[in-house]
Design brief:
Order of helices and strands: HHEHEEHEHEHEHEHEHEHEHEHHHEEEE
CATH superfamily of the largest domain: Response regulator
Number of strands: 15
Largest sheet: 9 strands, mixed
Structural class: alpha/beta
Helix content: 40-55%
CATH architecture of the largest domain: 3-Layer(aba) Sandwich
Number of helices: 14
Bound molecules: P-hydroxybenzoic acid
Distance between the termini: 52 Å
């Protein structure tokens, strides 16, 4: 123990120096040997291991359909497990190792904001692009000019719900969000749009990121007797626990409407939530039954790969689109893997995504996309998110001029 604590700082410092020395010379190294190396930094263990699996499945699915060659280069992926949310130290170290040791030309990764945040300065110094596969705090893309987002921002979802609520008879709301940057974004942007349209937030709670006991928080919310509760939490078992608690406490039975960012009621989680999703209003950029040719192909191939009844998470789409962005950018540069050239190539890319049309905003490197407003209900004998409104081409409102 004591020998490790003595050794670690020195080792870390040595790695830092090695990185500084190598970053300059590593540029385009793998283009010379005919390879495009993509480092994947994903949560593959811990409470959110399912998320890493979803992104990886999306990446594999994209390659199954589109092959493993682009612009004459053979695409190799090297996967590392960042173990989910934490300080971000591990994600930064893995990013550094992928760039220095594995000669990654770029990164696809970061489900969680703290992990992307921790890697930002390193990516800037190394001049290596990172396509953010999920992390959704607005400010992230301002933390490095090498970040490009393939996901969404919490303000895109929360502001859509704030507007919807105010226009649909909700006068008072209580917010419950996970206590870290994306939660604060969700709380801020719900309140901002809801109150600007005449509503009033009458109380708010912030819960630990891995909270599994929502009963006391919901109890306090119900005591405030709002028309609605608005919530964000980061998916997986945490969101299942939240939704089950709303049912157990009888939130909706008490006449309080439930509104959540769509990651909370990801299609993939619905079987575990059952009738807790009945009537729940949510906003998201994807759901499995979207009617467009890209989604028809995506769902068909997903089911061929993972089983006839398999329901893809929106996270699978984000992994798939992250890979699509990389392939398009490499095609645009004609196989030049210089990091700055690749980021520039990604700006303004349009994709026919399973989520609908997707544009990388050249000014912010965020996604401009449709946001679908849905209501939980039964369809074809299963619980589903049923879209009833589409807000087209939504930019990140936190950066809108
Ligand atoms: C994030 O940490 O930015 C994050 C994680 C999970 C989500 C949404 C946002 O579902």
């Amino acid at each position: 123990m004591s020998s490790w604590s003595g050794v670690l700082p020195t080792r870390r410092a040595a790695l830092g120096i090695a990185a500084a020395a190598l970053f300059g010379s590593a540029v385009s190294a793998s283009a010379a040997d005919g390879k495009l190396v993509i480092g994947l930094v994903l949560p593959l263990s811990g409470a959110f291991a399912d998320q890493g699996q979803h992104y990886e499945n999306g990446i594999k699915l994209f390659q199954k359909i589109n092959g493993t060659k682009v612009a004459g280069l053979t695409v190799e992926t090297v996967t590392r497990d960042d173990q989910g949310p934490g300080s971000g130290d591990l994600a930064r170290r893995l990013t550094q190792e992928l760039i220095v040791r594995n000669k990654a030309d770029l990164i696809i990764g970061y489900s969680f904001t703290p992990n992307a945040m921790a890697a930002a300065a390193l990516l800037t110094e190394a001049k290596k692009p990172a396509v953010i596969v999920n992390a959704a705090t607005s400010i992230l893309t301002e933390k490095s000019p090498y970040f490009v987002r393939a996901s969404f921002t919490l303000p895109q979802l929360a502001s859509s719900l704030g507007n919807w609520a105010a226009k649909n008879g909700v006068k008072t709301a209580y917010t419950i969000v996970s206590d870290y940057a994306p939660g604060v974004d969700a709380e801020t942007w719900f309140k901002k749009t809801f109150e600007a349209a005449g509503g009033k937030v009458v109380g708010s709670a912030r819960t630990p990121v891995t909270e599994m006991e929502y009963g006391p928080f919901l109890q306090r919310a119900m005591e405030a007797q709002p028309d609605a509760v608005f919530a964000f939490n980061p998916g997986g078992d945490v969101s299942i626990a939240f939704m089950k608690a709303t049912k157990e406490r009888g939130l909706q039975k008490a006449g309080i409407k439930l509104m959540v960012t769509g990651d909370v009621v990801d299609d993939n989680l619905l079987p575990a939530m059952g009738d807790a999703v009945d009537g729940v209003i949510s906003a998201l950029h994807y759901q499995v039954d979207l009617d467009n040719p890209a989604n028809a192909l995506f769902v068909k191939e997903y089911r061929a790969m993972f089983g006839a009844g398999a329901v893809p998470s929106y996270r699978v789409v984000q992994g798939y689109d992250a890979m699509a962005l990389v392939y398009k950018a490499v095609e645009k540069t004609g196989g030049n893997l210089d990091g700055t050239a690749l980021v520039d190539a990604m700006k303004g890319i349009k994709l026919d995504s399973p989520r609908g049309s997707l544009l990388i905003d050249p000014a912010t490197r965020d996604v401009v996309q449709n946001i679908y407003i849905r209501k939980g209900g039964q369809k074809d004998g299963a619980w589903r998110n049923i879209a009833f409104d589409t807000i087209p081409d939504v930019k990140d409102p936190a950066k809108a001029p």
